[in-house]
Specification:
The chain has 4 helices and 2 strands. The protein is mainly alpha-helical and 125 residues long.
């Protein structure tokens, strides 16, 4: 074979990724989505008044060690989701809730101890 001809050796097989990616861990399956909507009754789980239209991860994708379950999520209205993700108080609340969830305590979202100064400053949205 002349020098410079390209003749790669065949690979013994395609390598298979064993560990799921963070994106895959954070995906919300149709089953989990259905369970979340059944749990919330389409009512925001923070303010208990507005229609829940968004799903919020309590534990961020980077911290997940398992596929997303209904326990990792809250069903929220847009205002509460923005409060949870973008305000210092909301971020602190989400972190404390994540710590409680990861330790296994307080699994019922109806008993989460939502701060009195939620998104609108009066017990939720």
């Amino acid at each position: 074979m002349p020098v410079g001809d390209f003749n790669p050796a065949p690979k013994p097989g395609k390598s298979v990724r064993v560990k799921p990616t963070q994106r895959q861990l954070g995906e919300i399956s149709a089953k989990v989505d259905k369970e979340l909507k059944a749990r919330s009754g389409y009512v925001c789980e923070l303010c208990k008044r507005a229609r829940a239209v968004e799903r919020a991860h309590i534990i961020g994708r980077r911290q997940l060690k398992h596929k997303t379950t209904v326990k990792d999520l809250l069903h929220l209205c847009t205002k509460c989701h923005d409060w949870l993700d973008e305000t210092p108080e909301g971020i602190r609340y989400r972190k404390s809730l994540a710590e409680r969830r990861m330790s296994g305590e307080n699994q019922d979202p109806k008993q989460q101890g939502i701060p009195a100064t939620g998104p609108s400053g009066r017990n939720g949205g």
